[in-house]
């Protein structure tokens, strides 16, 4: 699919998702708010010329600019509208027939002394049918008149956007006696004449009158709801007005979720350099592979004629194998990034809007739950939150989040609130996992720090370059990265308190608790002091990483939404490890975590708490108010789940290998979905196979999961090369990496400065 075709598809084809949501063929339609419409139409003059149906479209269009406009005034006369704040003029001119009067008005705009409208929307036919009682002579005269008008419209189309609205069908059963002669057969004849005559002299010219035929499709589905059988219901004409706004404004406003009529964005210099790098990596890998293959053939084992001994092939040097692995990884990554770009930046594949229904969310949830239970295995260890269990937890949460995103379930508040708990649970695991590692191992070395940071950020940095998106756009990775650094700093700063030291004296435990209290105080202060938070992240280069649309408000909002849950994870890890050290819990296979009585009481409280939170979340009416409470109460459901999952010994001793497999690539799945499963930066759905939604979903999902798994492997391979254990080699790599990132940030800042000027 070529990008230029999306405008034509928007004007001519589509279907309804449900009753009111219109889905254009192949692209996504943005829902313009009145301030966006004003910005797009700033200093513009728009003219609607035609009959009562065009008047309906005029009012719907004007209401996009000013929703307070009332449908008042002379129905059979001209109606002006002006928005002085944005210097927008929108006029309706009453010309119910395509005749000499309409021609004269259109001709006046082609003369040099008269200012031409920027947008002209014209159309008429039903009055001609009505006045002349549907006679063939009237149709012949219509053809003659539109033939005389066509060259004038085509001339105007060279400097203005000109749309000819084809006639909608009527619902003949509802027509009054005075309109019974307006039949769908007559309307089709008039439309056929308009299509044949308009643009007949400019078939190969760029200046064409755009035929607005999509209204016919909309009317076919909704005209039976018409009040009089002739005029469209309000929701349908609002859809037509929104289509018109998308056709004109998308190329100006460039909304993320409005892919219709948007040209392919030009490649930035950084993107060009990235593609050159990947191209050279592919060529380099092919050359090295050919050299190694030739060397292998030359050094192939053969019998020595003199001694009769077998010669062994030459062994590759470690540096050669490292270079080959590096190029091989970049070769695969380059091919994958090409697929990313083609899916979500080039206008090659179709994109469609999401449409939520309860079945589209809950049926897949049930399906994956059944699959997860089917692939149940025994765990290797039976500790609380062991590796297999946390992988399983990450896996099913990630699958639920993916279904949530593709089904558009964010519009349903109870589902949204439960998904917020899943995101919080990921951050809880971040606090639990990293605290446990540092507390038990006491390893605060640079190698560990760099390994974690590389694994978290590698894919996102590559995507920022290839997809031309800011780092903060992939908000979850910055969130996890910052919280990891907070955990590291909290435990690494003097005095370093770890389990080995704390076992010597109980006062060290109090010291660690004091550190955690200080951390909580800092979190509380920053959450209620937006100014202080923004000052911290407004310094370069932090501002470059955490700004979105020129400010760090979005970053503050994301951070604030789950501000306490990492602290809760750290505190839970501390208490659990302390209980484990004192042998106050039983983690044997099949054993309940506590004594039978305590286990039963805690299990009852956990189930009650879990259900209470779900009832509260399901009864939420206001998203803002519920988001305010979420940071403080999300831990209730998280802790309840952990206890339900771990108190019974038989439940703790098994895990789902199906969910655990997805859990091991959960980060890659979360990031990759932005561009190769969803589309338009998560706002829509990628369509590889149009017309077959189920097959398309299966195919895109299969490719998406395979790509995420491959990227996980590439990241692991590159982590061993880029972050070696040898201190001297690691220092050199860090200096190179720091120089690269600094250069990238400076180059990006310079490019943005040039773009502003």
From TrEMBL:
<feature type="transmembrane region" description="Helical">
    <location>
        <begin position="600"/>
        <end position="617"/>
    </location>
</feature>
<feature type="domain" description="NXPE C-terminal">
    <location>
        <begin position="22"/>
        <end position="92"/>
    </location>
</feature>
<feature type="transmembrane region" description="Helical">
    <location>
        <begin position="452"/>
        <end position="468"/>
    </location>
</feature>
<keyword id="KW-0333">Golgi apparatus</keyword>
<feature type="transmembrane region" description="Helical">
    <location>
        <begin position="355"/>
        <end position="375"/>
    </location>
</feature>
<dbReference type="InterPro" id="IPR012419">
    <property type="entry name" value="Cas1_AcylTrans_dom"/>
</dbReference>
<dbReference type="GO" id="GO:0047186">
    <property type="term" value="F:N-acetylneuraminate 9-O-acetyltransferase activity"/>
</dbReference>
<feature type="transmembrane region" description="Helical">
    <location>
        <begin position="659"/>
        <end position="679"/>
    </location>
</feature>
<keyword id="KW-0812">Transmembrane</keyword>
<dbReference type="Pfam" id="PF24536">
    <property type="entry name" value="NXPE4_C"/>
</dbReference>
<keyword id="KW-0012">Acyltransferase</keyword>
<feature type="transmembrane region" description="Helical">
    <location>
        <begin position="423"/>
        <end position="440"/>
    </location>
</feature>
<feature type="transmembrane region" description="Helical">
    <location>
        <begin position="506"/>
        <end position="526"/>
    </location>
</feature>
<keyword id="KW-0325">Glycoprotein</keyword>
<comment type="similarity">
    <text>Belongs to the PC-esterase family. CASD1 subfamily.</text>
</comment>
<dbReference type="Pfam" id="PF07779">
    <property type="entry name" value="Cas1_AcylT"/>
</dbReference>
<feature type="transmembrane region" description="Helical">
    <location>
        <begin position="561"/>
        <end position="579"/>
    </location>
</feature>
<dbReference type="GO" id="GO:0000139">
    <property type="term" value="C:Golgi membrane"/>
</dbReference>
<feature type="domain" description="Cas1p 10 TM acyl transferase">
    <location>
        <begin position="253"/>
        <end position="734"/>
    </location>
</feature>
<dbReference type="GO" id="GO:0005975">
    <property type="term" value="P:carbohydrate metabolic process"/>
</dbReference>
<feature type="transmembrane region" description="Helical">
    <location>
        <begin position="730"/>
        <end position="751"/>
    </location>
</feature>
<feature type="transmembrane region" description="Helical">
    <location>
        <begin position="685"/>
        <end position="709"/>
    </location>
</feature>
<dbReference type="InterPro" id="IPR057106">
    <property type="entry name" value="NXPE4_C"/>
</dbReference>
<feature type="transmembrane region" description="Helical">
    <location>
        <begin position="474"/>
        <end position="494"/>
    </location>
</feature>
<protein>
    <recommendedName>
        <fullName>N-acetylneuraminate (7)9-O-acetyltransferase</fullName>
        <ecNumber>2.3.1.45</ecNumber>
    </recommendedName>
</protein>
<keyword id="KW-0808">Transferase</keyword>
<feature type="transmembrane region" description="Helical">
    <location>
        <begin position="396"/>
        <end position="417"/>
    </location>
</feature>
<keyword id="KW-1133">Transmembrane helix</keyword>
<keyword id="KW-0472">Membrane</keyword>
<feature type="transmembrane region" description="Helical">
    <location>
        <begin position="269"/>
        <end position="291"/>
    </location>
</feature>
